[in-house]
Amino acid sequence: MSVPVRRRPGWVLAGTMLLAVAAAGAQTLPPLVKLTSSGYVIGYVSEDDASVRVFLGVPYAEPPVGDLRFRPPRPPTPPEVPIDALFEPPSCMQSPYREGSFHAQPPEEVSEDCLYLNLWTAAESDNDRLPVMVWIHGGALTRGSGSLPLYDGTALARKGVVVVTVNYRLGPFGYLAHPALSAESDQGTSGNYGVLDQVLALEWVRDNIATFGGDLDRVTIFGESAGSWSVNVLQASPLARGLFHRVIGQSGGYFDGLPELRSSGDGSAEGAGEAFVKRLGIEGEGAAASLRELDAETILAEASKQGAFATRPNVDGWVLPQQVAEIYRAGEQADVPVLVGSNRDEATSLMGRMLPSTKSAVEFLVKSQFADVADEFFEAYPAPTDDEARRAFIDAFSDRMFAWQMKTWAVLSETVPSPAYLYFFTHAPPHPEKDFYGAYHAAEIAYAFDNLDKLEYEYAEEDRELAEAMSGYWVAFASTGDPNPLGGSDLPAWPEYEKDGARHLEFGSTIEPGSKLHERRMALWDRFFEVTQP
After folding, report:
1. 311 occurs within a structural domain
2. What are phi and psi of 300, to 5 degrees?
3. Secondary structure tally for the chain: helices H, strands E
4. Rounded to whole angstroms, how far apart are CA atoms 263 and 197?
5. Per-residue confidence (pLDDT) for residue 7, from 0 to 100
6. pLDDT tens profile 98-110
7. pLDDT tens sequence across 15-28
């Protein structure tokens, strides 16, 4: 259900304060009141750290409702009254995770009016010019929010960066392509609205971050899972060029291909959109107008049905001129330092108890899904027993979906001068079912944000040391483009990735460099994608 999106208690008091501030001159703005392109915003002091100021729910776009649904986002019109940036904004339209899902979250307020960002800064003045880290949340492009407690930016801000988290349109609201929508576009394209939201949010950062003590020439985009997919696309897209200066991708890339907006064969994004829109009872002329007349809940309910809508960006010639892999192979991606990696046991939390548990089940899945490389598969992933077969499946799923993507990202970064750094996260957080889940999908987020206190696990000292180290590498990378901290740090040196040496850093019970991560297994997936992709 949609909910009201902005609560502004105390705006009269805030307005009175701002009138006094304005009379004194812009240079006397107190730390909690900032003038931005969205209007005056009023933040608050973090309850966790008095040195950190927090601004929640700052609009970076007009609400994408009514005639603005299924269109590129537009910058907001500043309101006449100040914005109390004190409340978490609603999440974009989404259905909750299925009951029992490992990644389920408490119920959230959702609305189409959701294009807001949150910001944390410990800058002591507007002239501090701290590095900036812009987080793009995961959730398969269908769920999630920049306001989840795990993404709280206080701890990173305390370490000397300005942190921004962003909401962007999800599901069909963010990625529906359709001929009628393309026909009304100046570019002749549709879909990719979620990507365009992210681009506009980065433009907001460029235009306003100095006001919060951030350095507009040191902006890092980082994200996990679908957030990493998004970072991968942003680095490839000419529309985002110059809006960021470093990239961190955590478990997600699109080097195995995306649908074309329109194509002669099956599988075009417009074709998939037409099929979905027909399910809504809409066909023929006036489809675009009819789509905007439907209530959001009806669209969401249909998209949430099994197999109804596959949420992905598309290669439209504008946001993405070519396939992501082609752009990187040609060296046409943004030439910026890259830090990417994945986790050892990505499959466990994504598949849960649906993981195959017998040798025969794994053999059936491999022969049906990977027929082109089935013989090579069991050479790379031996599965002589049921227990070993389960482990083989976890490794193969994690490699195929994530480790291969991130390795390929690092390899293709050699087409530009900027360096790349690869990691592999093998530490199992102290989840109550630690032995089953291991280093699960998204396990590294709490460590990278240094936000262990946001999860109700019984952490040991080694966890806290790992969080301190990992977040330190992330902040160092955002600061200089090199994850190795300056100033004589005792952290292990993180080697630059080069194709010949293929070196990486492993985050496990200890932190240590390695080389040629799962070389034989990666060669299998190189072969698989060479055979199966156009």
Report:
1. no
2. -65, -45
3. 19, 14
4. 25
5. 34
6. 877 888 777 689 9
7. 444 444 443 344 44
**How far is it, in rounded angstroms, from Cα 72 to Cα 62?**
10
3-state secondary structure 62-93: CCCCHHHCCCCCCCCCCCCCCEECECCCCECC
Backbone φ and ψ of 165, nearest 5°? -120, 145
Label residue 238 exposed, middle or buried (CB < 10 Å: 0-12, 13-18, 19+). Answer: middle
Domain total for the chain?
A: 2
Q: How far apart are CA 83 and CA 174, in angstroms?
A: 26
172 and 40 within one domain: yes
Whichever domain contains 353, its CATH number is: 3.40.50.1820
Query: What range defines the domain where residue 489 resides?
Result: 337-532
CA gap 137, 121 in Å, rounded: 19
Q: Which residues contact 202 (CB under 8 A, 6 or more apart)?
A: 134, 219, 221, 234, 240, 243, 244
**Whether residues 23 and 103 fall in one domain:** yes
Does 137 share its domain with 66? yes
Clarify whether residues 170 and 245 are in a common domain.
yes
Question: Which residue type, as a one-letter code, is found at position 182?
Answer: S
- Distance in angstroms between the alpha carbons of the first and the last residue of the chain: 41
Within this chain, do residues 118 and 265 fall inside the same structural domain, yes or no? yes
| Catalytic annotation present for 427 | no
In a domain, 314, yes or no: no
pLDDT given at position 500: 87
Beta carbons of 175 and 194 less than 8 angstroms apart: yes
- Report whether pLDDT(13) > 60: no
Cα separation, 312 vs 176, whole angstroms: 9
Tell me the residue type at 413.
S
What's the token pair of residue 424?
A: 């592999």
Q: Is residue 528 part of a domain?
A: yes
346 catalytic residue (yes or no): yes
Q: Is 47 a catalytic residue?
A: no
Tokens 């990691």, located at residue: 423
Strand partners, 422: 340
Considering 203, 224, 270, 346, which one is annotated as catalytic?
346
Which residues have C-beta within 8 Å of that of residue 257, sequence separation ≥ 6? 323, 324, 325, 533, 534
Statement to judge: residues 159 and 52 lie in one domain: yes
Compute the residue count for the chain: 534
381 in the same domain as 498 = yes
Give the integer Cα–Cα distance in Å for 234 and 33: 31
Sequence-distant (6+) residues with CB within 8 A of 387 are none
Helix 269-279 and helix 296-303, axial crossing angle in degrees, nearest 10: 110
| Active-site option among 137, 245, 431, 441 | 441
**Residue 359 within a domain:** yes
Beta-bridged to residue 507, according to DSSP, are: 425, 511
Q: Which of 303, 319, 345 is the last residue of a domain?
A: 303
Check 145, 147, 225, 228 and give the catalytic one. 225
State pTM to two decimals: 0.93
Indicate if 427 and 367 belong to the same structural domain. yes
328 Cβ neighbours under 8 A, 6+ residues apart: 236, 255, 409, 412, 413, 415
